[in-house]
Structures are given as C-alpha cells and as structure tokens.
Amino acid sequence: xxxxxxxxxxxxxxxxxxxxxxxxxxxxxxVRAFLVKFANELKKKYSARQNISxxxxxxxxxxxxxxxxxxxxxKVLNTLFVNKFRRGYVRVKGAVMPEDFKxxxxxxxxxxxxxxxxxxxxxxxxxxxxxQEMVWCIANNLDYKGAEVVLPERFPFLDYSIIYNHEVMYExxxxxxxxxxxxxxxxxxxxxxxxxxxxxxxxxRLLPEKxxxxxxxxxxxxxxxxxxxxxISYYRYYQLIGDYSGDFDTLCKSFRNDxxxxxxxxxxxxxxxxxxxxxxxxxxxxxxxKKDLPSVIRRTAKFLGKSLSEEELPRLAQHLSFExxxxxxxxxxxxxxxINKKYNLSEKxxxxxxxxxxxxxxxxxxxxxxxxxxxxxxxKVDGSGFKFVC
Length: 390
Known about the structure:
alpha/beta; four-stranded parallel beta sheet; three-stranded antiparallel beta sheet; 21 helices; 48% helix; 7% strand
C-alpha cells in the first residue's frame, strides 16, 4: 500500500493506478463474497449434522422371551389361563403378556399420541370400567345419551386384540364376526377421528413412547386397588368369562408370585405411582371412590379442566353408583359373556360386577393367605411412599 501512495504522487501514473485500484477492489469484493458463501455453506452443513444428532431415535424393537410350559410360571399360565382365544405367553421388559402381544408391541410403542388423548390405565380388576365411565361422562359434559353407546366403542380397550385373538374363531365358524374395536383394537384406536379415550392394562414401560416421555399433553388416569380385593375380583371375573380354569388358592399364589397376565402387580402399580406428581397424571384408588365418590369426581373434573354444578354432581354420582353400573348394559360387558358362552368358553352364569365391595377378601381368604398377601405387599411398597387407603 505504501508503494501505491508513493506512485500516486506522480500525476502521469494516476489514471493507471486508479484502474488498478478498481480491479483490486473488485477482486477483494469477489473474494469477500466467496468467503461469505463458503462460511454459509459450512454453517449449513454443521447445522444439518447437529439436527441429525438431535432427531429422536426410533424405539428399539421389543425383545420377547417365550414362557415355556416346563417352567413353574409356564405350567400355571399355559394350563389355567388359556382358551381358544389365547394360547401362550411371553415375557417382555419383565412383564407377562399374551403371546399375541408380539404382533402389536412395536406398533404400540411407536403409536402417535394426540394432545387431547385421555388414557385410563390399571392392573386388571382394579375398577377400570368404573373409572372409564366417570372420565368419559365428565369429559363429554355429562352426555348421558351418548353414554348409552357401549363403553368399548366410545372408550376402546387398546389391548383387546392382544388378549383375545378372535381370528381363531373363523376356523370354527366362518360366519363369526365382531366389531373392529374387538377384532382390530389397535387399528381402531389409531383411526379414531374424534377425541380419543383409551383404556389399557399395559404397564407404564410398555405404553407408547410418547406417553412415557410426556412429549405431548395427553393425560393418564391410573386407578389401583388393594391387591387382596383385586385378586378376588380377578378370580370371579376370569372364571365367569372362561379365562381361568383353576381354583381360588392357586390364583392367590399366582397373584403373589407374579404369574398372571400383566404381572408383576406391584411393579405395575409403583411405576405409575412414581409419575403421580406429573401434571399429566392423576393417580386414583378404588377405595377412595367407594368412600367418597363426589370428592373423586371433583378431582377428576379439575384434572380434565371441567367443572360440575351442585345439581350435576349428585346426578353423575347416581349414574356411577354400583347398582346403576351393574344394570347398565353399556358398561356391564354382558355381550362379551354371551359370546364366550356361545363358543363354550364358559358355562357359568353371573355378572361381571358381583359386589364391588371393599374388604371382600375378609370373607374368602384364610388368615394364612391374608398374612402372606400383607407380607408380600409390605415388602414391595417399602420405601416407595405408597400407602393403602382403607
């Protein structure tokens, strides 16, 4: 640059130098433009790499272990818990599931979850139907006319096709038919074009990934029940519909030894209990609903962003009363019992809601069985903060 300043003093060279300066300036501009473009390209490539690293990984494929009949668990499950609709069991992430879960497990894990979805989750026979009807009525502004539609249609059971493989019935009866929410429950749930209310007995670790990581605003309502009462209800119900063919004592032992579908029981309960403080989770107890149903209705309404007037609350409580539920064909599952009897899965007569009481175990369990249940429960809940409500 000093040479330029010196030569510029020579008047005869000024035109030439001016030309040279213009050329250099133009080149410098081009060089600058090139460098800017190059830097932008680098930035794009770096950003792309960074974005790739941030893309959520697809859930790992679930791994299954067949529960063989030569094991203690297999002897019970493959002898006493099988019928035409269910022929074997597997273990997945430590949970006991019907073998047909293998067809649906990965699809459920990768299932799309909507912000307004409401899931009612529980271990079997914990008061699920009761909680479903309460939730549906509250969320749908006490639409009692709409509640005349059978519960599985408006509040589908995600696991239906998992625990009952109705396709095998075609082998016996080519004219056999059942609604899509029974035959293809996962597909039915996925294709619902209205707000979804979904029932499942799946343990927390087998729920859709988006539910487990709370990446949406979907809500989970979990209901639990004293295991002694749940065990009695389990025995009565699954004997009635032909899903269990053993005696009561064997069922009690199987319950405690985690040899039932969806077990282990306490792991099931405590996984949801651990999420109780999440704003998207409401943890309910069957015993609370029996003791003070209006209070539970209010809590649930608040959780769902709803409010009930002083006139509406008692009417809903009456609709949800045991006698009303027991006689309500939309929720008492009589059609399922009739199907099972038609195909000789069960010859028993009865109701899916025999008593709905708290403490019914006192009449059926021996003192020794009660002692074993209590010791088992105390050991499992130790340190969890979970307490029973009497």
